Amino acid sequence: QVQLVESGGGLVQPGGSLRLSCTASGIIVGIEPMAWYRQAPGKQRELVATINYIGRTTYADSVKGRFSLLRDNAKNALNLEMSRLKPEDTAVYYCTVTNTNDWGQGTQVTVSS
Predict the structure, then answer these.
(1) How far apart are CA 69 and CA 7, in angstroms?
(2) Which tens digits make up the pLDDT trace of 3-43?
(3) Residue 20 half-sphere exposure toward CB, CA atoms < 13 A
(4) pLDDT reported for residue 69
(5) In what order do the strands lie in the sheet with 77-82?
(6) I want to staple 2 with a disulfide (CB 3.0 to 4.6 A). Which of 26, 28, 68, 110 is the partner?
(7) What's the burial of 44, exposed, middle or buried (CB within 10 Å: 0-12/13-18/19+)?
(8) Closest to 71 (Cα-Cα) out of 88, 48, 50, 90
(9) What confidence tens digit (pLDDT) does each residue in 38-62 have?
């Protein structure tokens, strides 16, 4: 059984940074295709970043150059490093396992002064 737990969200000022973590059980993060999505109030869920089984990453244009995906194999976690945050990054962030369509419960990120 796959379980995903996101953490690391919170309130941050514009221009600040946050690290989101998705800690998994039931899969090996180091070899599993995964992704982060986000959903802002009143908007559809959108893809933020993906990582394939060999570690190749892709990013939405809106976050390219500001967000990075990193695997933490020791903790069996997938981290989303976010920098130069903008108010439009405010959303609930979710991680998911591509092949099994399992999702975490989400973590709230609010970017506001």
Answers:
(1) 15
(2) 999 999 999 999 999 999 999 999 999 999 999 999 999 99
(3) 33
(4) 97
(5) 3-7, 18-25, 77-82, 67-72
(6) 26
(7) exposed
(8) 50
(9) 999 999 999 999 999 999 999 999 9
Angstrom CA distances, 20 to 26, 40, 52, stand at 20, 16, 18
Q: Are 35 and 51 within 8 A, CB to CB?
A: yes
Distance CA 34, CA 51 (A): 5
104, amino acid identity: G
- Alpha-carbon distances of 21 from 44, 75, 78, 81, 85, rounded to whole Å: 22, 10, 6, 9, 17
HEC secondary structure over the chain:
CCEEEEECCEEECCCCCEEEEEEEECCCHHHCCEEEEEECCCCCCEEEEEECCCCCEEECCCCCCCEEEEEECCCCEEEEEECCCCHHHCEEEEEEECCCCEECCCEEEEECC
pLDDT tens string 78-92: 999 999 999 999 999
